[in-house]
Design brief:
InterPro entries: BXL (IPR044993), Fn3-like (IPR026891), GH (IPR017853), Glyco_hydro_3_C (IPR002772), Glyco_hydro_3_C_sf (IPR036881), Glyco_hydro_3_N (IPR001764), Glyco_hydro_3_N_sf (IPR036962), Ig-like_fold (IPR013783). The protein is α/β, with parallel strands linked by helices. The chain contains 24 helices and 29 strands. Among the domains are: about 230 residues, Rossmann fold, CATH 3.40.50.1700; about 150 residues, Immunoglobulin-like. It is globular.
C-alpha cells in the first residue's frame, strides 16, 4: 500500500540503494576473488572446512616479512596478492558508535547513531541488565554500520579504569570508583557487544566462539592520570608519569576490573596504557601483558597498544634510551600483538633484521589478531547480521533505551521533603504555568553526549524536555560553564522572580574535564556559585528551585546542599542524546529517580590534602594523606558513594536464613595466613585467615535474601546495595566493600524479594599487604544499604570458621 504511492523512479533508486548497501562483503567470497582476478582456491586460509587455527596460520605463512609488518598497525595494509584487503582496527563505541577512531564515520548514508549516556551516568543506574542491553543495542548498530561500510568490527571500548582521584579528566568515560562495580559493568557491556544472541557464549571452544563485534577493555594498567598540575609543580602527564603502585593495590583495585573483564566477560582484546607502572612502560611489561592477561587470565584475543604507546617509550619516556627497534622488540616480547599508529609497521622489519626478536614472535601476534577477525566473520560473513541496515540504527527501540538509561542513571542528591516546596512537581498544576529554565546548560545538546561520541540521532535538550510540561522562560545567565562574570545574570534573575518554578542547569563540560586534562580543584567554575545563589534567592519567594548538575567527576556542591533557597539537586552526569527529556520526566515525577552515585563526592578541600600522583588507596600516615574512595577514606564528604534519593521510601528486612556462616577446611600442608591487627583489637581467632587459592570455593555458598518494602506513596525502583565488612581490627582492611547490587521495581505499598547468591571466598575476602587474596576467619558483617537517610541500613553478622 505504501509503495504504490512512491513514484517509480524513486522506487528504482531505493531498490538500487538497498541492493548496493545490503550486501555485506567478506574476504573469502569467491566472487570477490574473481573480480580481483584471483582464484580463491589457491588460498587455504579461505577453506572453511579447516579449523580457524589452521587458516590463520596458513594466512600468516603466506606473507613475507614486510607484508607481516604492514598488518601490525591499526591501519593494516592488507596483501593484494593474497586478496587480503586493508582493515582499520580502530573503531570506538564508548556509549554508542563513535566517530573517534578512523575505522568509523558518519555521512549522509549513515547520518547518526544512538548516543547513550556516558558510562558514569549509566553506571549510576546500578543495573546489570541495562548495561548488557546497551551493549547489545550498540553492537546491532555497529554491525549495521559495518554492513554499510561505515564502521569496523573491532571496537576499543569500554574504558574500565577505576576512578582513584576526583580530579581525573576521564571520569565521565568510566563506571566509577568501585572495582567490583567497574568489573560488573565491563562484563555486561562486553557481553552485550560481543556475544552472539542464541549461542552459548560460555561453553565450547572459547578460542573460536563467534563474536558479534569485538570489545576491548582499556587502559591497562594503573592509568588514571592525564595531565595534572598543582601544588605549584610542573604538569605531570600520562606520557611521562610512572604510577608507583603496590602489588596490594594492583590486585585489589587497578587490575581487578580487567581480571573480571577477561575471565568473566571473555573480552577479545585488552589495551595497554601509556604510563609506566613502577618504572616500566605498561606496553613493554611482560609480566603485566603476557604473564597476567594471556597466561594467568587466559585471554582469548589480542593485546593492543594505546595510540602511539610504543613511540611514547622512545620519544617521551626515553625508556632505556631505546632506539625505536629496541622499544618495538620489548613491546612485542611483552605480548603486544597490535600497535595503534605506525611504530610497529615502520620498525618491525628492522627489529627482526637486527636480531632483536624472532619473526615467529610476529607470527604469533598476527595469529592472535586474525583469530579475532575469523570469529567476527570478517573472512566468512555473518549470517546472523548481514541483513542489518539503516532501519536498525537510531531505531525507536534504541532511542527509547537511551531515554530509559538516562532516567535510570539520574541521581536525586537533595530533596527537602519537609519544606513547602520539593520534587516532584505536579504536571497537572504546571500545565499553563511558567518555569524559568536558566543556566549555561539549560539548552545543552553536545554537552550531554560528552566525549568519544558519534553523531547522535537527535538531541532532546533540557529546555525541550521541560517545555513538554510547562511554559518555559529560557535565560543562560552565564555565557558558558566558565561563567567568567555576572553580565548576563539580570535576565535570568528576572525570569526566576516571575516564574512558578525555577530550574538551574549548571556544572562542567569537556572544557573543564576531558582526556588530557585533569582538574586542579572540584569547584563549580567562575561565578556559577554566585549565579545560583542569586537566582535561587530571587526565585524562592514564588516557587520551587531545582539545581541540575552536568558533570562526570564530582563537584563541590556543599553550598547548594546547605542553601535553604534550593529545594532539590539533581546530578544528571552526561545523560546522552535523550537526556533533556529524562531530566524533565524526573522533575515532574513521571519517573521516580533511583540512581546512585558511583563515586564519592568529597568536600572541596579534599584535593588539597594529597597530590594526584600518589597512587595509594589507603591513607598514608607518614605523609598525612587521607585514603581514597569509600573503601579507605572516612573524612568529610558531601555525598557518599551509593547516595541517591527517591520520591518514595523503602525499608529493608532480612529474610532469616538458616546458615549465616561458612566453614572452610585447610589441607594438611597449608598454613593459616597471619594478619596484622590494630592495637587493642579483639583477640583474633587462632587461624587468622586462609589464602583463598587454598580453599574449596563454591558459588552460592552464601545466600542473602532481602525484602524491599516500598512504604511511600509512589511506585519506584530501589537499588539494593550489599557491602561486606571484615572482622574488626584487621589492619588495612577496607572500611567496607561492595559485594552485590540489584535494582528492583516495587509498587507503592508493595514488597519485592531480592536474593543475593554469593561466593564467600570472593565476597568476604580482603587483599593482604603481601597481595594474597585472603579469607579472614571470624565475624564478618554484611551491610544492606548505603548511609542514611535514603536507606534504612541493616547489618547482618556472618561467621567464617577456618579449620586447620
Ligand atoms: C552454556 O553452557 C554451560 C556449560 O555447558 C552451561 O552451564 C550454561 O548454563 C549454558 N548457558 C546458556 C545460556 O545456555
Ligand atoms: C599539560 O598541560 C600543560 C599546561 O598545564 C601544557 O603546557 C602541556 O602541553 C600539557 N601536556 C599534554 C601532554 O597535554
Ligand atoms: C616513582 O618511583 C620512582 C623510583 O623510585 C621515583 O623516581 C619517582 O619519583 C616516583 N614517582 C612518584 C610520582 O612518586
Ligand atoms: C537551543 O539549542 C539549539 C541547538 O544549538 C538551537 O537550535 C536552539 O535555537 C536553542 N534554543 C534557544 C531557545 O536558544
Ligand atoms: C563577561 O563575559 C563575557 C563572556 O565570557 C565576555 O564576552 C564579556 O566581555 C565579559 N564582560 C566583562 C565586563 O568582563
Amino acid at each position: 500500500m505504501a509503495t504504490s504511492a512512491i513514484p517509480y523512479t524513486l522506487l528504482l533508486l531505493l531498490c538500487l540503494a538497498s541492493f548496493k548497501t545490503s550486501i555485506a562483503t567478506h574476504v573469502c567470497d569467491p566472487q570477490r576473488y574473481q573480480q580481483l582476478g584471483l582464484n580463491m582456491r589457491n588460498f587455504p586460509f579461505c577453506d572453511i572446512t579447516k579449523p580457524y587455527s589452521e587458516r590463520v596460520k596458513s594466512l600468516v605463512d603466506s606473507m613475507v616479512l614486510s607484508e607481516k609488518a604492514a598488518q601490525l598497525g591499526n591501519n593494516a595494509d592488507g596483501v593484494p596478492r593474497l586478496g587480503l584487503p586493508s582493515y582499520n582496527w580502530w573503531s570506538e563505541a564508548l556509549h554508542g558508535v563513535s566517530y573517534v577512531g578512523s575505522g568509523s564515520h558518519f555521512d549522509s548514508a549513515v547520518p547518526g547513531a544512538t548516543s547513550f549516556p556516558l558510562p558514569i551516568t549509566t553506571a549510576a543506574a546500578f543495573n546489570e541488565l541495562l548495561w548488557l542491553n546497551i551493549g547489545q543495542a550498540i553492537s546491532t548498530e555497529a554491525r549495521a554500520m559495518n554492513n554499510l561500510n561505515h564502521a569496523g568490527l573491532t571496537f576499543w571500548s569500554p574504558n574500565i579504569n577505576v576512578v582513584r582521584d576526583p580530579r581525573w579528566g576521564r571520569i565521565l568515560e568510566t563506571p566509577g570508583e568501585d572495582p567490583y562495580t567497574v568489573g560488573r559493568y565491563a562484563v555486561n557491556f562486553v557481553r552485550g557487544l560481543q556475544d552472539v544472541e542464541g549461542t552459548n557464549a560460555t561453553s565450547g571452544d572459547l578460542n573460536t566462539r563467534p563474536l558479534k563485534v569485538s570489545a576491548c577493555c582499556k587502559h591497562y594498567a594503573a592509568y588514571d592520570l592525564d595531565n595534572w598540575s598543582s601544588f605549584g609543580n610542573l604538569a605531570v602527564d600520562r606520557f611521562h608519569f610512572s604510577a608507583n603502585v603496590t602489588e596490594q593495590d594492583m590486585v585489589e583495585t587497578f587490575q581487578k576490573p580487567f581480571e573480571m573483564c577477561v575471565k568473566d566477560g571473555d573480552v577479545s582484546s585488552v589495551m595497554c596504557s601509556y604510563n609506566n607502572v613502577n618504572g616500566i612502560p605498561a606496553c613493554a611489561d611482560t609480566r603485566l601483558l603476557k604473564g597476567t592477561i594471556r597466561d594467568e587470565w587466559n585471554l582469548h584475543g589480542y593485546i593492543v597498544a594505546d595510540c602511539d604507546s610504543v613511540e611514547t617509550m622512545v620519544d617521551d619516556q626515553k625508556w632505556l634510551n631505546d632506539e625505536p627497534e629496541n622499544a618495538v622488540a620489548q613491546a612485542m616480547r611483552a605480548g603486544l600483538d597490535l600497535d595503534c599508529m605506525t611504530y610497529y609497521k615502520n620498525f618491525l622489519v628492522n627489529t627482526v633484521a637486527k636480531g632483536l626478536i624472532k619473526e615467529r614472535d610476529m607470527d604469533n601476534a598476527l595469529m592472535n589478531n586474525y583469530m579475532v577477525l575469523m570469529r567476527l566473520g570478517y573472512f566468512d560473513g555473518s549470517a546472523n547480521y548481514e541483513k542489518l541496515g539503516n532501519a536498525d540504527i537510531c531505531s525507536k527501540a534504541h532511542t527509547d533505551l537511551a531515554l530509559d538509561a538516562a532516567k535510570q542513571g539520574i541521581v536525586l542528591l537533595k530533596n527537602r521533603k519537609t519544606h513547602d516546596f520539593f520534587l516532584p512537581l505536579d504536571p497537572q498544576q504546571f500545565k499553563n504555568k511558567q518555569i524559568a529554565v536558566v543556566g549555561p546548560h539549560a539548552n545543552a545538546t553536545t554537552v550531554m553526549i560528552g566525549n568519544y561520541a558519534g553523531v547522535p540521532c537527535r538531541y532532546v535538550s533540557p529546555l525541550q524536555g521541560l517545555a513538554t510540561y510547562a511554559n518555559v522562560q529560557y535565560q543562560t545567565g552565564c555565557a558558558d560553564v566558565m561563567c567568567k562574570n555576572d553580565s548576563l545574570v539580570w535576565p535570568a534573575l528576572r525570569a526566576a522572580r516571575d516564574a512558578d518554578a525555577t530550574v538551574i542547569f549548571v556544572g562542567i563540560d569537556l572544557t573543564v574535564e576531558h582526556e588530557g586534562l585533569d582538574r586542579e580543584d572540584i569547584e563549580l567554575p567562575g561565578y556559577q556559585n554566585q549565579f545560583i545563589r542569586q537566582v535561587a534567592n530571587a526565585a524562592t519567594v514564588k516557587g520551587p528551585v531545582v539545581v541540575v548538575i552536568f558533570s562526570g567527576g564530582p563537584v563541590n556542591v556543599a553550598a547548594l546542599e546547605t542553601n535553604p533557597d534550593i529545594d532539590a539537586i539533581i546530578w544528571a552526569g552526561y545523560p546522552g542524546e535523550e537526556g533533556g527529556q529524562a531530566i524533565a520526566d524526573v522533575i515532574f515525577g513521571v519517573y521516580n529517580p533511583a540512581g546512585r552515585l558511583p563515586v564519592t563526592w568529597y568536600t572541596g578541600d579534599y584535593v588539597w590534602k594529597l597530590p594526584m600522583t600518589s597512587m595509594q588507596l589507603r591513607p598514608d600516615v607518614n605523609l598525612g594523606y587521607p585514603g581514597r574512595t569509600y573503601k579507605f577514606y572516612n573524612g568529610p564528604i558531601i555525598y557518599p558513594f551509593g547516595h541517591g534519593l527517591s520520591y518514595t521510601d523503602f525499608q529493608y528486612e532480612l529474610v532469616s536464613s538458616a546458615t549465616m556462616s561458612v566453614e572452610k577446611q585447610l589441607g594438611l600442608v597449608q598454613h593459616c595466613l597471619t594478619l596484622n591487627y590494630i592495637k587493642g583489637a579483639p583477640a583474633p581467632p587462632p587461624c587468622n585467615a586462609a589464602n583463598v587459592d587454598d580453599l574449596e570455593c563454591l558459588d552460592g555458598d552464601m545466600s542473602i535474601v532481602i525484602k524491599v518494602k516500598n512504604v511511600g506513596k509512589m511506585d519506584g525502583d530501589n537499588v539494593v546495595m550489599l557491602y561486606s565488612q571484615a572482622p574488626q581490627g584487621i589492619l588495612g582492611a577496607p572500611i567496607k566493600q561492595l559485594i552485590g547490587f540489584q535494582r528492583v521495581f516495587v509498587k507503592a505499598g508493595g514488597i519485592a524479594t531480592v536474593t543475593f547468591s554469593l561466593n564467600s571466598c570472593k565476597s568476604l575476602s580482603i587483599v593482604t599487604d603481601t597481595a594474597y587474596v585472603a579469607l579472614p576467619a571470624g565475624k564478618h558483617t554484611i551491610i544492606v544499604g548505603t548511609e542514611a537517610p535514603e536507606d534504612t541500613v541493616i547489618s547482618i553478622p556472618f561467621n567464617v570458621d577456618i579449620r586447620k
